[in-house]
TrEMBL record:
This is Sigma factor sigB regulation protein rsbQ. Keywords: Hydrolase. SUPFAM superfamilies: alpha/beta-Hydrolases (SSF53474). It comes from the Eukaryota. It holds the Pfam family Abhydrolase_6. Residues 22-259 form the AB hydrolase-1 domain. One of its GO terms (molecular function) is hydrolase activity. It comes from Trifolium pratense. Belongs to the AB hydrolase superfamily.
Length: 268
């Protein structure tokens, strides 16, 4: 990112007037705007930190270093650098999808920073592994997704967005499509390969910070069995909050409902 500060490069914002910090970290294919209808529920009681992952379409693509962002550790570096730059010493963290895993990895490095992790649509591994682990996808299915992205990105987005949103909420599909189209297709494909080829099952036991796993009733990206697997293997106190809504992006499809569920999780 050169001479540009990480706070500027990743569009970091702090909203709200509370005395405690709360981080909202978005997932693959979105940017911080994904939280815009959830944010107002928390600005009275928290200072809410929002930022964009370096792969987001809202970030200058020149900042995306293909050599650096080959694994999630570089994204963890970014998160910790943001918190240090803001002089945050303690926060609750809400991470969606890829950012759920980034938050867990960050908590292993700096457990004192995080009072609680709330993990929405989290998966340590998307690929199935024999009879021992059901991640939701076979290798051939993933390769087919990559091929479709390369062949016709627009057609892939138009097919993928409604499946990912899951619920019958056209506005959410339009919003997710917008942020996917904002991403440069080569960056989208590169990040997809990084995410789908990751296997973080081995680090779950190292996560000692209390975790709340939020899992929707039906998520095409993350089967319910993954939430159960994570609860059984996380190293600290963990709970599952089953959400009475569908899809991988409840903050887009059911924001007020999700906000209420987040309030419950944060109060426990």
């Amino acid at each position: 990112m050169g001479s540009t500060s990480i706070l500027d490069a990743l569009n970091v914002r702090v909203e709200g007037s509370g005395d405690k910090y709360l981080v909202f970290a978005h997932g693959f294919g979105t940017d911080q705007s994904a939280w815009q209808r959830v944010l107002p529920y928390f600005t009275r009681n928290y200072k809410v930190i929002l930022y964009d992952l370096v792969c987001a379409g809202s970030v200058n693509p020149d900042y995306f270093d293909y050599r650096r962002y080959t694994a999630l550790d570089a994204y963890v570096d970014d998160l910790l650098n943001i918190l240090d730059s803001l002089h945050v010493t303690r926060c609750a963290y809400v991470g969606h999808s890829i950012s759920a895993m980034i938050g867990m990895l960050a908590s292993i490095r700096r457990p004192e920073l995080f009072s609680k992790l709330i993990l929405i649509g989290a998966s340590p591994r998307f690929l199935n592994d024999g009879e021992n682990y059901h991640g939701g996808f076979e290798q051939g299915e993933i390769e087919h997704v990559f091929s479709a992205m390369e062949a016709n990105y627009e057609a892939w987005v138009n097919g993928f967005a409604p499946l990912a949103v899951g619920a019958d909420v056209p506005a959410a599909v339009r919003e997710f499509s917008r942020t996917l189209f904002n991403m440069r297709p080569d960056i989208t494909l590169f990040v997809s390969r990084t995410v789908f080829n990751s296997d973080l099952r081995g680090i779950l036991g190292l996560v000692k910070v209390p975790c709340c796993i939020m899992q929707t009733a039906r998520d095409m990206s993350v089967p319910a069995a993954v939430a159960t697997y994570m609860k059984e293997h996380l190293g600290g106190k963990s709970t599952i909050q089953w959400l009475d809504t569908e899809g991988h992006l409840p903050h887009l499809s059911a924001p007020s409902y999700l906000a209420h569920q987040l309030e419950i999780a944060l109060s426990q």
